Amino acid sequence: QASPTTSTKFGHYYDVSKTMSPERFQSIKWHSFYLPEELSLQPKVNTCNMNSAYARLLESIQRIIYQEGFDGSDPQKKQKNILRIGIQSLGSMLWGDDICSSDTPEDTHSLTKFLYVLRGLLRKSLSACIITVPAHLIQNKAIMERVTNLSDMVVGLESFIGSERETNPLYKDYHGLVHVHQIPRLNSLICDVSDTKDLAFRLKRKLFTIERLHLPPDLSDTVSRTSKQDLAESAKLLSSGCGAMAIGKKHLDF
């Protein structure tokens, strides 16, 4: 029987100043996707009006899901973990995607097609995916709205570097803002909206912390303060009843 003083540690704390040891990294089973190698192995791929890099990435993800048994169709011989997928800078030139160029109009729909197919793969497999998108490079708001609708959760980071807030004393304790655009809501047709709008992050020596944005109080030398005589007069008014007439320098508002 657990004692009342026993507490359970919730969450994880990562020291951002440390790196993963090579021994631990080699003991973990992982897969990588390097586009030049994929191009040399399969020079021709049916892209279905999609960017060839996205098509090859989808084939690689699908192959890992079925070969490693994350599809869930076959009986699991042993307990499986969730396949964790990480994709960086999706929609940038690193993937050969030129969304904002009028010379390649087919690239306008490649990103949304990729997310739509990827969403189907994740729904029918034991998989989860986190994607980073350089939103500052995508000037088309319609495409960003489609990307948001095809995602379960959307979070944006706004850095203070290079902006007016970097030198603003009100934000001296923070390094940027966290914008929660969308939160998943299970078994519903609409998405939940966070009640906490003001979130900020700051980088410490070992931690990356996200907390509510608390601005310092606006104090000045001209702030008027209530004297003891005014407090005594207010106390007399309160003792006489709320319906009494306010006789004094200070009036009470009800």
From TrEMBL:
<dbReference type="Pfam" id="PF05625">
    <property type="entry name" value="PAXNEB"/>
</dbReference>
<protein>
    <recommendedName>
        <fullName>Elongator complex protein 4</fullName>
    </recommendedName>
</protein>
<dbReference type="GO" id="GO:0008023">
    <property type="term" value="C:transcription elongation factor complex"/>
</dbReference>
<keyword id="KW-0539">Nucleus</keyword>
<dbReference type="InterPro" id="IPR008728">
    <property type="entry name" value="Elongator_complex_protein_4"/>
</dbReference>
<dbReference type="GO" id="GO:0002098">
    <property type="term" value="P:tRNA wobble uridine modification"/>
</dbReference>
<keyword id="KW-0963">Cytoplasm</keyword>
<dbReference type="GO" id="GO:0005737">
    <property type="term" value="C:cytoplasm"/>
</dbReference>
<comment type="function">
    <text>Component of the elongator complex which is required for multiple tRNA modifications, including mcm5U (5-methoxycarbonylmethyl uridine), mcm5s2U (5-methoxycarbonylmethyl-2-thiouridine), and ncm5U (5-carbamoylmethyl uridine). The elongator complex catalyzes the formation of carboxymethyluridine in the wobble base at position 34 in tRNAs.</text>
</comment>
<comment type="pathway">
    <text>tRNA modification; 5-methoxycarbonylmethyl-2-thiouridine-tRNA biosynthesis.</text>
</comment>
<keyword id="KW-0819">tRNA processing</keyword>
<comment type="similarity">
    <text>Belongs to the ELP4 family.</text>
</comment>
<dbReference type="GO" id="GO:0033588">
    <property type="term" value="C:elongator holoenzyme complex"/>
</dbReference>
<dbReference type="InterPro" id="IPR027417">
    <property type="entry name" value="P-loop_NTPase"/>
</dbReference>
